[in-house]
Amino acid sequence: MKPILYVHGGSGNHGCEALVRTLSQLFSNSTLGTPIVLTANIKEDSKYKLEDSVSLISPSKDICKLNFNFLSAYLKYKLLGKFIYLDMLPWKRVIDKFTKDDVAFAIGGDSYSYSYTEDNPFMHEMFRKKGMKTVLLGCSITPELMDDYRVLSDIMNFDIIFARESITYNALLQHGLKNVELIPDSAFILP
Prior knowledge:
This protein is of the alpha/beta class. It contains 8 helices and 7 strands; from the N terminus they run E-H-E-H-E-H-H-H-E-H-E-H-E-H-E.
């Protein structure tokens, strides 16, 4: 079993960097071992030497245009006008390498705070389709955003949610979620 950290905003955002560093410490001291971080900005993460404590993986750059996944994504783009299917193809190749025994941790603390974006639910669904357990970790969610059925239906599919503050925790409970714990952001344990 490997811990996979995704929705990482990059180490230029030092809150994201702190979260990865503290989780690395916690996981390395457990049976889970060194986490794998999915990052779109590997140069930035390397600048801050994040690879000293985690394994960094960036999206695949070589996408074959003569396969079912590309053709399906392209047709969805043409028919539905949604480019997200093509955007996520590089990540699909990465996620396909994991197994159902791995655990995916969505660590973008406030990625569900401002507005709905398709990226997070799309990646979450790719992990779920593999049969992986998923965790929403250290999150803050704008309560009104949970009134959007797309956000709520995505959030409801996490196996467990760790809210980092009481407003999110109470809003999740008010929206009927039971798999919620209130735990402060792990970044606060940095030395």
